Amino acid sequence: LQSISILISNVSEPTSIFYLLSNNSINELIYAFVPLRQFTEEALDEILPVYISFLKTLALLLADNSKHLFHFFCNQNGSSSSLPTFPLLYAACEVISSVSRNDSFVQTTCLNIILNIFQLPEQEIRDVIGESFMEQTMLFSYLAEKLHGRYETICECMAEERVNLIEHGDKLECEVAKLEDLFHFVNDLLWCSQRSVNVRACEFVVQFVVSMLNEVINLEVIETHQTKEQKKKEATLHYQASMFFLNKVYTTIDYTPLLKMILLALFHPYSPAESQIEEMSQTIRKELVLTSTLNAIAQNDFVVIDSIKVKENDINGRNTMEDLTTHVIEDPDVQGEVSVSVRSNPYRRKMLTSLSGSDGDGCFLQTAMMIESAMISECMDISLLRKLGLVPNYCNLEQDDVATIGSALGSFFQSPRYKTSSVIGKHAFDCAISLSAWYAPRLLQAAAGEELFTDCVHSRMQNSAVFQGLVNAKRLCALECAKLKAMPGISEFYSDLVEAQIRSIFDNNECAAFSCNLAHLSTQSHLHAIQFLLPTSRILHLNEIENAKFAIHSMLLSKLCQNHFENIQNSILDVVIGVASRWVDDLFNFKTSYTPTSDLMALGCLIHQPIVGSDFVIEDQTHFHFSPSLALTDSELKFPPINLSASAPQWSAVSDKERRRQLADKILIKATNMILIINPIELLVLKPKSKVSDNRGTIMCCTLLSNVIAVAMDGEWLHIAMKNVDDVGALIKKGNMALRFNGRKECLAAREYIESTRTELKNSLSTKMDQFLKDI
């Protein structure tokens, strides 16, 4: 095999290649080594690597000249031979379905061979692939086994309470990476546009998703030896893993027909009854059962026959009745009619129940991330959203507690979850706000085109469950904030907590202005999705500081999202009235980025500070003269001297911030007289522009007054401890600035003025916070 592979790889003459591939010899050689079970494990260790390399060589040869070589790779003896129609494809599929050991080289190479063959453009090849049902079955069986294995391994990782959390996290990340590789392969396979293969691939994925969710739901009801608590814990872990699995589907695969099929199976109010699917599998090809029933549901191509009682008592012993509506569809491959029964969709019910917060923050977080990934995917449009009923229709605003995304989110916001905090709880709230921001315009978009649309705008927004929930969440958070603000041990630095939370929301690096994009709040949650599967993420951090931060954070986001709803309500009529109906859907793209109000700007100290190196007018500013304590020489500098000319080549090698810092250091080296300016919100250090006048100066460094932690005096030296400041070599080291004044009296005056200004600032911020909470 190795000799033949080398020979084929180095032959360049077409006639020589034709001669080597003729007489069906290569095809017979390919088929001679399958099935692999004819060899012992010891023999496979020697044969398999060489055999796989041989198949890879042939696949590359076929890809280079498929138009002229394909007929050599088909069974040239026709039906008189025992060889399959396409031996190379058959061998690749047989190998991956037969190799029991975890040989990544063999599996990856075979999958690449299969994908390369599926991507060949010639119609003759595509026809042969479309009729290769045995090969397709082997391929999908392998993928199903691998996907189920990854899912089970992720569940095991979640259940294990490991001491070595690093090793535990690494194993989980490795499994998730392998899962993503499988999804990427499925996505690439679908985009090969082999129609018959795509139909079976979509059916395979949807069947896997449905069976996975059935397993999760059955864990809660089947009788086992486990206690009720153990059973609930296992069901919760499997549910979170399934939501994480589906989230990866929508973030990895972009084949629209498959994504729509999964959405229909998960979220349509009705789903096929299991008994009917089993019955249909006896008459319709089993691999197309879900495709046929979902198409019937999507197209409303059915006739209602009857409603029957399917269960007498629920798990609590109460009498209940679940309606099964039987429809009739036509299948072209079956004589006569095939009845399809549908039931209330248990998957939709379970996911919206979790989205309401009933199953805890962990289940909510995974569900919210999955739903958001599905809703913002390219497969989602307003017609599909209406068909799924995830947004209330015009006539029925809210059907029940968990009927729509909005009512589920409303229940989440209504729950009293703002007194204790956790890492996962904070991310859950961020995802709830992000999903609500997406939901707000769709609440009106779903009713666009109705005759009385303009009359229902106010009621749909103000009376929606999610809006009412946001109002309630904002109120509860404000009460909790007021309570914690008066608590000893927190009141002293409550303004610092408020400032930190406002900055975390609005002070981002996406743009120069302070802003918060509600739609991007869940970005960090998606980036750290794997960590939320680890056992440590389920531990609550019960302390007053974290609770205060969580309450402030939740209150601010609730208020922002409420304003988002109100802004859409106020502006929607202006863009809809007088616009042709066919353009209405395009007018529901509202901004989700908001700038802070003046109150929030003040509470968060969100100001654009002066630029280091710029000129500053000192007139009417309280200032003091001092000398820097850390006078450096050129040899003591930590960084190499740079040419400060804008045309110097080194100038572009450093950032603007670093360039300005080095400029300040260079100026401060020889400086003997500096000016400290103290105003109501910030501290600035200037170097006078002139030795005879101190009306103007060059800014060496500046920081907000709220960043000052403490001020201490030592004779004529004044030490200022600060946070959130960068080192300036000749002035600030590790957050400490030491200033030497001309005398003790001037040093004392500077310290007292700093302290009094800090006190005035804190009192002002406290008053503003009290008024802010009162207004809410």
Overview of the structural elements:
- The chain starts with a helix and ends with a helix.
- Helix 9 packs across helix 12 (228-252), helix 19 (405-414) packs antiparallel against helix 20 (423-445) and helix 20 (423-445) runs parallel beside helix 25.
- It has 776 residues and is of the alpha+beta class.
- The strands form three sheets. Strands 6, 7, 8, 9, 10, 11, 12, 13 and 14 form a nine-stranded antiparallel sheet that branches.
- The radius of gyration is 34 Å and the shape is globular.
**N-to-C span:** 78 Å
Shape: globular
- Broad structural category: alpha+beta
Record field, number of beta strands: 14
The number of helical runs is 28
Radius of gyration: 34 Å
Beta strand %: 5-15%
- The parts where pLDDT drops under 50 for at least 5 residues are 304-324, 330-336, 394-402, 578-584, 631-653
Share in helix: 40-55%
Which sheet architecture does the biggest sheet show? 9 strands, antiparallel
Average pLDDT works out at 78
